[in-house]
Hints:
MetI-like fold; 12 helices
Amino acid sequence: xxxxxxxxxxxxxxxxxxxxxxxxxxxxxxxxxxxxxxxxxxxxxxxxxxxxxxxxxxxxxxxxxxxxxxxxxxxxxxxxxxxxxxxxxxxxxxxxxxxxxxxxxxxxxxxxxxxxxxxxxxxxxxxxxxxxxxxxxxxxxxxxxxxxxxxxxxxxxxxxxxxxxxxxxxxxxxxxxxxxxxxxxxxxxxxxxxxxxxxxxxxxxxxxxxxxxxxxxxxxxxxxxxxxxxxxxxxxxxxxxxxxxxxxxxxxxxxxxxxxxxxxxxxxxxxxxxxxxxxxxxxxxxxxxxxxxxxxxxxxxxxxx
Length: 305
């Protein structure tokens, strides 16, 4: 009977999720995008194309059999630059959102479980971060010269360093919203009978938090993480557009827009394509998060009924 009920709950969740057309379209778009990003290196190898190779004799070319979306101001293949930029932007969005969720989950569980002064200290710290304007804060943090803080120039000039820096900065300032959500769920779950039984058996706080409470608060964490990905991609694009994020020649959708802003009248496609992909990707993750939230809410209502 319990197994049958579990199957019914899963069926109700997926049926509610897939009946949302925007969620299905978003999932198809993101799946296609990720597949294209994964296939791009194979295509580059087979065709012998370097997306960062400069060819000034073939600037601003239109779509052709060789360059499906044409070339940019330096003669580089635009489609491959977009896919490589998508790999960077999506990677930053996914990794930063996961790290933010992990930090926020740990903080929220700790605050909700222990309460008292621990709860007050963690939540006041979270409130301080939330009260700060996020974009100006990110701009200030990314503009800090790490070389003056003792970080070796060798590390700073590494291709992946700018991505790593953005991920860490966004994760540090992005965890409070997850923490508040997890704390609220923890406070509700903590009053259940099985938690009281676990407390009476003198289980360690870590065991109770991660074995008994965490599995019951994962649904809002998944939804919040999904919704956060789109916002992080948008922030990364803004930082790269301002010259504070991913640095050329590494492609990201944001720095591709930066390179295209002076060429908008000469070759509009250089700005249209990265801007269009940023828009679609952010909207897709938001639609996906909303659909997950509705499906999980419907599942919870059916369980209560």
